Amino acid sequence: MRYAQWALVCLIGSAALTLHANTHQHGAHEHGRGVMNVVTQGREVLIELELPAVHVVGFEHAPRTDAERHAIEAARERYSDAAALFRFADNAQCTSNSTEIHLGEDVEHGHSGEHSQLHAEYAFSCHHPQHLNAFTTRLFEHLEGLERLEVNVITPSLQTRIHLSSSQSAVSLRR
Fold this sequence. Notes:
- The protein is globular.
- By secondary structure, the chain is of the alpha+beta class.
- The protein has one domain (about 1-170).
- Strand 7 (about 150-155) and strand 8 form a beta hairpin.
- It is built from six helices and nine strands, in the order H-E-E-H-H-H-E-E-H-E-E-H-E-E-E.
């Protein structure tokens, strides 16, 4: 039951933050920008990521060549490695529990469409949450053309929005 409650809180918070973030951008999809939602509760950390596919695989259409199909597989592998993308303090002892990666339907399944996105969800469990003050992301090292990442954070002690860039990659989880 506790897991179901946690999942519900995460889904509601994530959906609300994504809706809020998307309505305050110049549309739901904007090149050069992405959205990250972060929710913590007890030992658990959930990170949701929305990025334009053009920054992830280099295109937004259905794959047309072997090189484009290879780019999709390489992106799936790269964005499935949660520990390589997100760094928590060693003494928090956080481990990845699950990762879900979805590229836009047109990119994954060959349908034509506009503005495909990567949607990723990462769940972590931290053995010592008292040391969970912040984390850093290495997303800008992997995403050509990503200029800004809007981050919405909900923790028991903090609700905020910050903006990350290649020069600022730390997300604070405490006041």
